[in-house]
């Protein structure tokens, strides 16, 4: 079986870095535009949760910030967890390769192309059980 995903997008917030017993982990969300727009001519954007470990996480910590453009290749992992007697599902990209496509973190000239995604995190207050899978989104 093949489990491989490649995306190009911008970080919605600064990466969060965790250090457990000397092994670093970086987590962040990437905003990825689709190739079409909604009925109001606004781009449709997917927000993908990403994780990296070890040396990749160290490089992410040093070189990326909110708005950084990245190319990511990795595996898509799904999991579930229980919270307050409800089952929640999450999908995330476990990064195997990352390409830094914009200026380094120390350079303050990095700019985002879509201002409304800069501080948006779709995982804040997300309750997957309220998502209606039968909801139809009209695309023009």
From TrEMBL:
SUPFAM superfamilies: Nucleic acid-binding proteins. The keyword DNA-binding applies. One of its GO terms (cellular component) is nucleoid. Keywords: DNA-binding. It holds the Pfam family SSB. One of its GO terms (molecular function) is single-stranded DNA binding. InterPro entries: NA-bd_OB-fold, Primosome_PriB/ssb, ssDNA-bd. Gene3D superfamilies: Nucleic acid-binding proteins. CDD domains: SSB_OBF. One of its GO terms (biological process) is DNA replication. The keyword Cell inner membrane does not apply. Homotetramer. HAMAP family: SSB. This is Single-stranded DNA-binding protein. It comes from Staphylococcus argensis.
């Amino acid at each position: 079986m093949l489990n491989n995903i490649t995306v190009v997008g911008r970080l919605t917030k600064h990466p969060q870095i965790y250090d457990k017993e000397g092994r670093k982990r970086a987590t962040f969300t990437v905003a990825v535009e689709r190739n079409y727009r909604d009925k109001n001519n606004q781009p449709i954007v997917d927000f993908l949760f990403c994780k990296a470990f070890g040396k990749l996480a160290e490089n992410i910590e040093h070189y990326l910030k909110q708005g950084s453009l990245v190319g990511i290749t990795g595996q898509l992992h799904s999991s579930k967890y229980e919270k307050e007697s409800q089952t929640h599902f999450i999908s995330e990209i476990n990064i195997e390769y990352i390409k830094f496509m914009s200026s380094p973190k120390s350079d303050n000239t990095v700019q985002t192309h879509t201002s409304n995604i800069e501080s948006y995190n779709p995982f804040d207050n997300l309750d997957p059980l309220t998502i209606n899978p039968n909801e139809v989104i009209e695309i023009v």
